[in-house]
């Protein structure tokens, strides 16, 4: 008998998330009883301090697992019993599985971004890359970029200490010199082959762009992790110049593919999930 799955997503401002539909539709296709619920901190008037209670409640209600998104991917770490090697190395969790009385943290963001990158930007130059943002998603993307062969990654964040912590983390895994804290965006952009936005800027509720359009040029490739809207201001500026681009839908889908497998134990059809995502009006 196939398992029943009750999963959810904890985050702030997530009403527009396509993740529930992605999981439930694939569950239907696999003949699973699969329910996926949003646990949105904003309408509940909660913040990250509610995470202990929310995790406990999910366990009491026999949730199979939870996805975790902004702003909880790092705050949740002390509340877990075990971490996968990848989650421990990245220092951020986006998937928690409840199993045998334990809370086990995973990170599928890294794999998700890498899969989209390989499918869409596999042939791009990657000597120097600028990354905007050093939060939980940024940590996963940075690991993916270096694993995919980026030679030098300059990381910019409004919180300089957070950027330094991420660079230290990357240095431990990939060696010295591969990642550095960015300190002059204009100069870094002038030398870059590509730029990746891992900040929330560009979301419908946080409009704008982390990179002024004047710093873009045709030769750059530009990648996003924001997917609502699918075409952010950054991507719109980049496409107007003829840049190669990667939208945030790719990471959203491919991280969900792995999370589905962790929750259900069944192997999902990645191309079917991608097609379903693309069929949704975003």
Q: How is this structure best described in words?
A:
The chain has helices spanning 19-29, 51-60, 85-90, 109-121, 136-147, 160-174, 185-191, 233-241, 249-264, 270-279, and strands at residues 4-11, 33-40, 65-68, 82-83, 95-99, 102-106, 128-132, 152-156, 179-181, 194-197, 221-224, 244-246. It is globular and about 55 Å long. Helices cover 39% and strands 20% of the residues. The protein has 282 residues and is of the alpha/beta class. The protein has two domains: 4-107 and 251-279, Rossmann fold (3-Layer(aba) Sandwich); 110-247, Rossmann fold (3-Layer(aba) Sandwich). It contains ten helices and twelve strands. Strand 8 (152-156), helix 6 (160-174) and strand 9 (179-181) form a beta-alpha-beta unit.
Task: Itemize the secondary structure elements and their pairings.
Blueprint: E1 4-11, H1 19-29, E2 33-40, H2 51-60, E3 65-68, E4 82-83, H3 85-90, E5 95-99, E6 102-106, H4 109-121, E7 128-132, H5 136-147, E8 152-156, H6 160-174, E9 179-181, H7 185-191, E10 194-197, E11 221-224, H8 233-241, E12 244-246, H9 249-264, H10 270-279
Helix pairs in contact: 1-10, 4-5, 4-9, 9-10
Active site: 73 (proton acceptor)
Pfam families: Shikimate_DH, Shikimate_dh_N
GO biological process, one term: chorismate biosynthetic process
């Amino acid at each position: 008998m196939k398992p029943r799955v009750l999963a959810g997503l904890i985050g702030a401002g997530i009403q527009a998330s396509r993740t529930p539909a992605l999981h439930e539709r694939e569950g239907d296709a696999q003949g699973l009883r699969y329910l996926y619920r949003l646990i949105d901190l904003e309408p509940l008037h909660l913040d990250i301090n509610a995470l202990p209670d929310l995790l406990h409640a999910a366990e009491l209600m026999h949730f199979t697992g939870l996805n975790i998104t902004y702003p909880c991917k790092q705050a949740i770490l002390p509340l877990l019993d075990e971490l996968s090697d990848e989650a421990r190395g990245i220092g951020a969790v986006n998937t928690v599985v409840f199993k045998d009385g334990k809370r086990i943290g995973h990170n599928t963001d890294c794999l998700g971004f890498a899969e989209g990158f390989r499918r869409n930007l596999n042939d791009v130059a990657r000597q120097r890359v600028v990354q905007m943002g050093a939060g939980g998603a940024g940590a996963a993307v940075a690991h993916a970029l270096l694993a995919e062969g980026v030679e030098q990654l300059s990381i910019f964040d409004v919180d300089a200490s957070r950027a330094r912590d991420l660079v230290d983390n990357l240095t431990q895994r990939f060696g010295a010199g591969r990642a550095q804290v960015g300190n002059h965006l204009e100069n870094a952009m002038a030398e870059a082959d590509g730029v990746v936005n891992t900040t929330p800027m560009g979301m419908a509720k946080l409009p704008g762009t982390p990179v002024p359009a004047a710093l873009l040029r045709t030769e750059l490739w530009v990648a996003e992790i924001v997917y609502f809207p699918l075409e952010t201001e950054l991507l719109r500026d980049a496409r107007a110049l003829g840049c190669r681009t990667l939208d945030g839908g790719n990471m959203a889908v491919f991280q969900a593919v792995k999370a589905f497998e962790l929750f259900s134990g069944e192997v999902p059809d990645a191309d079917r999930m991608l097609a379903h995502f693309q069929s949704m009006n975003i």
